[in-house]
Design a protein that fits this description.
Helix content: 10-25%
CATH topology of the largest domain: Quinone Oxidoreductase, Chain A, domain 1
Order of helices and strands: EEEHHEEEEHHEHEHEEHEHEHEHE
Shape: globular
Largest sheet: 7 strands, mixed
Number of helices: 10
CATH class of the largest domain: Alpha Beta
Number of domains: 2
CATH superfamily of the largest domain: Medium-chain alcohol dehydrogenases, catalytic domain
Distance between the termini: 11 Å
Number of strands: 15
Radius of gyration: 19 Å
Structural class: alpha/beta
Strand content: 25-35%
Length: 322
Amino acid sequence: MKAIVQQEYGDSSVLHLDEVPVPAIRDDEVLIGVRATSLNIGDWHLMAGLPLLARLAIGLRRPRQGIRGMDVAGLVHAVGPAVTAFAVGDEVFGVVDGGLAEFAAASVKKIARKPAGLTFEQAAAIPTSGATALHALRDAGRIRAAQRVLVIGAAGGVGIYATQLAKAFGAHVTGVCSTTKLDLVRSLGADEAIDYTVSDFTTLGASYDLIIDTAGNRPVASLRRALTPAGTLVIVGGEGGGRVAGTLSRQMVAPLRGVGSKQSFRGLVSVTKAADLATLAEFVERGELSPVIDQSYPLGQTRAAMNRLETSAAVGKLVLAV
């Protein structure tokens, strides 16, 4: 099969289209014939091997998993003997190791049936970013109807889903983004949109019950000034920070800021599960959640897609058609 293979850390030049064996599946796995896959910022981190601390888990000198890509949508091509929930021909979406390929092995614990009415490309744009947004709001943020919610990075991979889900949960939503993405954020349902290149939301006098920070470039001390006295800050992802730890250290230290205060500061480590995907599919089918695709590329143009991801120019998700 054709796949995007990486044998060393670096920029997009380390990614190569190559012929590799079709992966074998375990008893509790299915083999997916991949129709589409999407890029996440996590794919960039794995490609670059940054922050350096992450290499303890992904490989010190080179990546242990040589095929990039984690979010896919496609057709079940084969099933392991212990699999009863899926059959050959089922349309599915979810998370795999090695999704930038024509075939990918998937645990049944990390896939679900593709939402009705979505194309494979649209479905592939949802899993990791959508589940991360769900975990940030529902689990870490414990969102409630009528709360005032601020999404920093509202037009980013996670932000586009966090904005829509917060509205679906009944919140009043303010999205923070750059000038060129204001219209997108409003179209996602945000009640207000703040252009961070023009205004500093921490100085505008508004306070929020829940802040979802996907950008990682503001001090926690600054963000807490925008929280209500019993508000919650959820730090998502590892963006910003230095080469060694990124903002992983920020996520770990942030909870200490809440000691002795009614305010809560939480770091988020999100693992996508089948139940999360099923929940996201329900939001989609109710018309409360829609993927936003910036551009679609053929698999052979993964380098170009990764370069666009790195520039933060994308307005929505970047998808690879397989």
